[in-house]
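Example (one chain per record):
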Amino acid sequence: MNHHSHTRRNFLKTVSVLGAVGAAGCAQTGTSPGGATMKTAYNPSAKFEVNVSEVEFRRTAKGRQLMARIYQPQGAGPFPVVLDLHGGAWNAKNRMAEQPMNRALAASGILVVAIDLTLAAEAPYPACVQDANYGVRWLKWKAPSLNGDPTTIGIYGSSSGGHVAELLGMRPKDPRYGAIPLPEAPNLDATIAYVATRSPISNTFARYQNALDKKRDSMIKNNTNFFNPIESIHEANPQEILDRHEQVTLLPLLVMQGALDDNVLPPVQEKFVNSYRAAGGDVSFTVFEGSVHEWTADPGPQTTRAQEMVKAFIAKQLAAGRRVG
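Predicted structure:
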């Protein structure tokens, strides 16, 4: 549903209601991959101190060490778990890109882990999707030791990270994406409970056409570096996956879109949302007035609103019993 017309006041009321649901209804018992029984509660209005640390994640095929940045609430737990996938047009940025969102989520009582991804200059599609698939499995394995409940895992992805998140959500058991083994827990899969996104590249070919139309050489190069051969831009296009009526998993999806975004165009995003709904998916879609592609990087009312919206979305999924094995 498009909440474009909702006022800030009404939104905060919704968050308060969902917070009450989280406190009363999100205490659920599950079983971790290690077999331990866990009880997980989430109240999005809660406040926690957050400890930030870093660990080695994995090495790329060319030997670069990828890192994972862990935002760990300090409390009894266990906490719900979110894997953050950074943007950067598949060619840039790292685990630091979404620190404001990650800190805000962690401070509300969510174990957030942001990972580096292979960049296009190191390897084209599907390398970073493979990193992310491995990241889901790796985090399921690691979460209990970090006071997190792996059965609650969801993904937050921004821009190209949102594109990767959508692919993982739609194709959780694609053997190409799951090609990196996890010897410590070989039976874990990459299923997740939900996907939350900011400015996701939901139509890769439309974005490439937009770059060509605007003669943006850097954006054109970002696409040709990642989609190599260029024909893979269609195979890995969430919009075209739906158009082709592929057999996919349709998880609850949150899409937050800037009204002034000239990188991922709002009408293109809206078309994807409509296609996702038509296919039977549950998607919440909000356009943020006066906001460009990366608005959540800067402090302000719309950034705060986006943070509260993601918290409320996660609370709703937990209250509905969204869990994974």
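Caption: Residues 1-38 have pLDDT under 50 and may be disordered.
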